[in-house]
TrEMBL record:
Keyword Repeat: no
Keyword Chloroplast in record: no
UniProt GO cellular component terms: membrane
Primary residence: membrane
Name of the protein in question: Cytochrome P450
Source species, domain of life: Eukaryota
Length: 420
């Protein structure tokens, strides 16, 4: 190639490139520039769409707006509940959006729970709860009179619900393992080993559940709405319908937390515990007519609602909302400057209209919200206090000072020991 140029000439690279190659090079540069610009625009559009989608998760802190959404037919349960189907095999109105299923399920549960409003059924329930406490405390108690409060509450609440409400006499394996398994899977949703163990527990107790008339009624309702369930493309259809967690989770999960946090607050307020113990030991007072106990439970539900957030999705716009129940319950304009302070006496008088609007511990549709939740939780608290009227926190355990709210994350105070 050197023979093509005179000796001593200054040759520039661009001059040496053939015209066709120069054209191709320039075209490539232009194409790359356009492509880069196009990708940048696409990236910006994708970012905008994602940002807009994220913005669609609206946080609702207004009590009026929350109630309007919860009553509306335009909002359905959020897809976040779908994990209950995949992990716990639950196919009840908590996970399946179907108006007929919700109405039928709710009405049946209301009729079932109404039985315990009768004096004789209530006394029967209290008797069962007392027996279950007598059974569990010696099993859990250590040599030094100490026991784990959370284990006691979880097991007694579960056993009382199964025995007293469903008439199911489950074996000890289920009573001791099921509470921790459910809570474990709430956090570790892909743990197949835990899911397998969960199924084993119910297989081993299948005969006990089969004999439960109430559970059979619930199963029938689910079976009669099989089309709504199958429309969601759910696998293992029959297995999920026959899963007792369809009634255990709504009946137990909320109740044990109400009992647990009520007892934690009583431990932080020993004078209040002493006063309650005196009232409950009065023969003329029961958990059903003890105003102080009712106020304690209501204040616990206000400060520590079992469901802190409720998620809904608009069926037409796709808008997703998170109703912040805890924020609504702690609203100072409704509850006063001490809204974040445990003060049960605020419920001794009739609530103002604003306070009633700002009280949603069981949403607006839970069948237990009117009476049963207070009866059931109150009976367990009463029988526990009667069994050990002077229970205190063990010296190696600790709770926050009363000027701070308790931690409501799952497994909080899981290792707290009490002396009985």
């Amino acid at each position: 190639m050197t023979g093509d140029f005179p000796s001593g000439s200054t040759i520039y690279f661009a001059e040496w490139i053939p015209v066709s190659l120069t054209y191709n090079y320039q075209t490539t540069i232009m194409f790359s520039t356009v492509l880069f610009s196009g990708l940048s625009i696409i990236g910006a559009i994708i970012y905008f769409i994602r940002y807009k989608y994220k913005k669609q998760l609206n946080i609702i802190t207004s009590a009026d707006q929350a109630r309007e959404i919860l009553k509306s037919d335009q909002y359905v349960r959020h897809i976040s509940n779908a994990w209950l189907i995949n992990t716990l095999s639950i196919v009840n109105p908590f996970t399946i959006h179907d108006k007929s299923l919700l109405k039928t399920f709710k009405n049946r549960v209301i009729l079932i729970l109404a039985n315990w409003y009768k004096e004789d059924k209530y006394e029967e329930l209290v008797f069962v709860i007392g027996k279950r406490i007598d059974y569990h405390i010696p099993l859990l108690q250590l040599n030094n009179r100490k026991l784990c409060l959370s284990k006691l509450v979880k097991q007694v609440t579960l056993d009382s619900f199964l025995t007293g409400v469903l008439n199911v006499n489950a074996n000890d394996d289920l009573l001791t393992e099921l509470p921790d398994l459910i809570i474990h899977l709430w956090k570790n949703r892909d743990d197949k080993k835990a899911q397998t163990r969960l199924k084993e527990l119910f297989v081993n107790n299948n005969d006990q559940f089969t004999q439960s008339e109430i559970w059979q009624q619930i199963q029938t309702i689910l079976s009669n709405h099989s089309s709504a369930i199958s429309n969601m493309g759910i696998n293992d259809f029959d297995e999920k319908i026959s899963n007792p967690l369809n009634i255990i989770v709504p009946g137990w999960e909320t109740m044990w937390r109400v009992v647990f946090y009520s007892l934690l607050e009583l431990l932080r307020h020993p004078k209040l515990l002493e006063e309650l113990s005196l009232q409950l030991n009065d023969q003329s007072t029961s958990s059903q007519n003890c105003l102080l106990l009712e106020c304690i439970i209501k204040e616990t539900l206000r400060l520590y609602p079992p469901t802190k957030n409720i998620y809904r999705t608009h069926i037409e716009t796709g808008e997703e909302v998170r109703i912040d129940i805890q924020h609504i319950h702690h609203n100072k304009s409704a509850w006063g400057s001490d809204a974040c302070t445990f003060r049960p006496d605020r419920f001794q008088e009739k609530l103002t209209d604003e306070q009633q609007k700002h009280y949603l511990p069981f949403s607006i549709s839970c069948p237990a919200r009117h009476k049963f939740a207070y009866i059931f939780a109150g009976a367990i608290i009463t029988e526990l206090i009667k069994y050990c009227p002077t229970f205190t926190i063990a010296e190696e355990s600790m709770l926050p000072s009363t000027d701070k709210l308790l931690d409501v994350t799952r497994n909080s105070y899981n290792d707290l020991l009490i002396l009985v």
